[in-house]
Amino acid sequence: MILVADSGSSKSDWILDLPDSKPLTFSTKGLNPFFVSEKEIEKVLKEVPEIIPYADEIKEVYFYGAGCVTPDRRELVSNALTHLFPSAFISVESDLLGSALATCGAKKGFIATMGTGSDVSFFNGEYLLQSHNGNGYVLGDEGSGAWFGKQLITSFLYDRMPIDLSGRFEEKYRLTKDIVIKNVYQRERPNAYLANFAEFMDANRLHPFIDGLLRRGFDEFVRTNLLTYPNYWEYEIHFVGSIAFHFDLILRDVCRIHGVQLGTILKSPIQEIFDFVIEREKKSILNF
Fold this sequence. Notes:
Shape: globular
């Protein structure tokens, strides 16, 4: 049995290949190792009843996750998965690589994640080139859910949001400065907290303030993360994530303005990653 995961900071999607039945799919909260511990990962998965009966039968686990960018973070996730699936081969890689496999396959191209956080890199058909982007929600994540959430909250708290929109925002969230401070600076997963406010943008997407904010965020993402590549116009750039998916019309417009070749936009790449892994394993068996 093969288990495949695509994990962001807010949500993780899983698919288990069952031999005599259709694949088992389930979701958990995000398992970014910068925000959850090894024990927390184990705890989350132990609370998924669907997976428990198969734990000893799973032979391969492929985990593609946000935050899995350094050896120590990948090891943290790997250790947790090893405790849960003792008989399995464990592979932990970045969510960006998983997204590249889902969209580029074996072709060259740029791949960007744009959900709770954001990142971009170039995929040469085999592996990702080293990226200088993806600096997290404090220093980067331009155009991400966390970035937009931060803009919305600060606009509200500084009284820079238009009165009609501010009224809707206040009615929906009942925010105070103290509430924001506690969630951003004192509680777990502050980036996911900030990204939750993207729902408000979706509900008010036709408001000029929201439209302008979206265009500014996507423009900053392109200028900061993509135009720095000397050959950015030669290859397609594929986007994966809820922000790119839900606000795709504005993203397409911003990319067009900058002469960016836009490729695939996926809300979640889990099915495509799963299909890629299964096909790769079949070819490996045939070539053995």
